[in-house]
Amino acid sequence: MLLNFSDNLDNYKLMRQAIIPRPIGWIVTEDENTNIAPFSYFMALTSTPPTMIVSIGQKSNGEPKDTLANIRKTKKCTICIPKESQLEKMHFSAKELAHSISEAETFDIELNKKIENFPDMVHGAPVAFFCELKQELDIEGSLHKPIIVEIRHMYIDDTCFTNKEKLYFEFDPIARIGGDYSFLGTKIPAPKMH
Ligand SMILES: Cc1cc2nc3c(=O)[nH]c(=O)nc-3n(C[C@H](O)[C@H](O)[C@H](O)COP(=O)(O)O)c2cc1C
């Protein structure tokens, strides 16, 4: 089957089943309260400077999602990488709530302050990136706003290190596959190049 994207296709349905696994950025932002939401149109972009990209859509009423509204306002976000045991809370935190209602309180998600002047991180997340907004992109014809953030600090939980001196670490990430999830349990060493 060969599909033509100029036909009226369900792009999201097709792309999300094929572009897998997608990492999940569990993003904490702040306004009057703390907002938490997961995003899987999320990826590393450049290592120097250390940047990542997240594509954020609109709420059902057409307003920007709270994550985007908060990042535009404060220029900061903390992007946590959830582990297997956090799947349920991460998933529930995607529920569309009013701006004034915090997912942290609604879904009992414990937070930790690691760095002043950045949003809290989700307690228990193995990895978190403390980021500043670098650039917002405007994709012609899209209601999604991709934003580029620059990593200023990174947290790695001490229990994840296999060699702390050399900064080698591992954890049990969750990936998005279509509308479901996968644990990425099996590690396959990269074949040696000759
Ligand atoms: C695993 C997962 C990944 C998601 N990825 C995205 C995404 O990349 N972009 C997006 O706009 N919404 C995504 N969503 C939906 C948002 O999490 C959802 O709209 C949420 O209510 C946004 O919250 P906010 O208004 O507090 O920012 C995802 C949901 C889940 C469960």
**Helix amount:** 10-25%
Number of strands: 14
How much is the radius of gyration in Å? 17 Å
Assembly type: single chain
Number of DSSP helical runs: 4
Main β-sheet, spatial strand arrangement: 3-2-6-9-10-5-4
Description:
The model has no long low-confidence stretch (mean pLDDT 96). The protein has a 7-stranded antiparallel β-sheet with strand order 3-2-6-9-10-5-4, with helices on one face. A 3-stranded antiparallel β-sheet has the order 1-13-14. A hairpin with an 8-residue loop joins strand 7 (111-112) and strand 8. The chain is built from 4 helices and 14 strands. It has one domain (11-178): Pnp Oxidase, Chain A, CATH 2.30.110. By secondary structure, it is mainly beta. Residues 24, 35, 37-42, 55-57, 59, 65-67, 91, 94, 96, 176 line the site of flavin mononucleotide.
What's the short version?
This protein has helices spanning 11-18, 66-74, 87-92, 103-106, and strands at 22-23, 25-30, 34-39, 42-46, 51-56, 76-81, 111-112, 121-122, 127-136, 145-156, 161-163, 168-169, 174-177, 180-183. It is globular, with a radius of gyration of 17 Å. By secondary structure, the protein is mainly beta.
Task: Jot down its keywords.
mainly beta; 4 helices; Pnp Oxidase, Chain A; 14% helix; binds flavin mononucleotide
Element layout with pairings:
Layout lengths: L10 H8 L3 E2 L1 E6 L3 E6 L2 E5 L4 E6 L9 H9 L1 E6 L5 H6 L10 H4 L4 E2 L8 E2 L4 E10 L8 E12 L4 E3 L4 E2 L4 E4 L2 E4 L11
Antiparallel strand pairs: 1-13, 2-3, 2-6, 4-5, 5-10, 6-9, 7-8, 9-10, 11-12, 13-14
Bound molecules: flavin mononucleotide.
